[in-house]
User: What shape does this take?
Amino acid sequence: TPSTIACASTRVTVVGSGNVGSALAQRLAEKNLADVVLLDVVEGRPQGLALDLLQARGIERHDRQIIGTNDYADTAHSDVVVITAGLPRKPGMSRDDLMLTNGKIVLAVTKQAIVHSPNAIFIVVTNPLDQMTHITWKASGLPIHQVMGMAGVLDSARFQTFVAMELGVSTSDIHATVLGSHGDLMVPLPRYTTVNGIPITELMSVETVERLIDRTRKGGAEIVDLMKTGSAFYAPASSTCVMVESILLNKCRILPVTTYLEGQYGLRDVFVGVPCRLGCQGIESVLELDLTDAELVALHTSAEAVRQTSDRVEALLASS
Ligand code: TXD
Assistant: This one.
């Protein structure tokens, strides 16, 4: 394995080489998006995974460098840092149950990564997502447009999948929108969920829409219950990859992203998922959808649940 990357090229560090991290590294390299540095605390695992991915290069026809390491010095000059380090849920656990353990991990990871990539864009994946994004923002000292969380893309992808399965149409023809916090109070928006532009509210009954929303809300838990050890990782890796791609290629895609709101949607000082334009600066702008009163109440309720844990986040930050 080469220990250094010879030429300056686009570089993404993925911290945590578990299920999500390793699947993401594979997507980034095989889509030829960036050189990848895979970092973990476990010695040998990221190095082994990197070697394995390198040995697939000839078959997958790319020449991306992939480094596995336990040393943050190897992550220097990353354009994007993705944080997947931390524990996943076990059956019966809520995402909030992971707060203290993962909070300490995400804090430590951010502080080390920022030293070597002081101007990187950070994407947080670790749960509980909204709170972990808050920690990375504060601990990094970065401007808010450079720190974001991945959840809405995944929740929307799940809704999109269930709608496509229900209607028996191509998933590619469905555009789904899910806002809010990454948890049971997420806010799927049927009015903004369309089949080639036609809102699903015109194509299925209220009961059917509610059933699909319920499955979307419990989409992560359904997989945790089936897998028993570990949680979803293929769709989370794809969802993170699409965000990285929009940033690195300056595609300016509109994606639901967890960000810090400063008055948009009547919300302030809270991290929650809303549609954002993602480009080379990170979050280029936050889009304000025209929501009904009921949709707005649901978004505020979702944000309130995040806010209720903000004292625990602040305590964690203060203790560091
Ligand atoms: O929508 C979303 N945001 C999510 C979030 C979708 C899927 C998974 N989600 C969360 O991501 C999940 O609840 C976890 O909190 C993280 C990572 O999930 P993953 O399934 O990848 O967990 P693994 O396989 O247990 O991998 C975690 C890795 C593992 O290799 C640990 O050794 C490593 O994290 N780890 C660390 N790496 C670096 N530094 C530190 N301190 C560290 N601690 C653990």
Q: What stands out?
A: The chain has a mean pLDDT of 95.
